[in-house]
Write a structure and sequence with these properties.
The protein is α+β, with helices and mostly antiparallel strands. It is built from 1 helix and 7 strands; from the N terminus they run αβββββββ. The protein has one helix at residues 2-12, and strands at 28-31, 37-40, 46-51, 63-64, 66-67, 73-74, 89-92. The strands form 3 sheets. The protein has a 3-stranded antiparallel sheet with strand order 4-3-7, with no helix packed on it. A two-stranded antiparallel sheet has the order 1-2. Strand 5 and strand 6 (73-74) form a beta hairpin. The longest helix has 11 residues, at 2-12. The radius of gyration is 24 Å and the shape is elongated. The chain starts with a helix and ends in a 13-residue tail after the last strand.
Length: 105
Amino acid sequence: MILLLTGMFLFSCSSDDKKSFPGGDDDIIEEDDDGGAGILSNEKEIITFNFRSSDNPDLSQDVIGILYNDGSIKASVPYGSELNQLTPTITLSENATVSPDSQET
């Protein structure tokens, strides 16, 4: 009888039970500097990557970046452009971050 109860107890408890978090199962809860909790999304995606001519005086027209599934981005800028002087405009998925920020050189 004791052996049967012990077996039932061991098999009724599972270490891989999922816990429910406010951000969903795929999100991460992280404590911020003020002791509060913030939700960090596992969705880390660049939605758009462009160089707007209004933000980059050397460009006569907007340059639209092409996003590839392998995570690479292709953007064709005019020959002679100072690449380290271009300011991108980047749209990210919710809760994602990028460094340097969009609109920074």
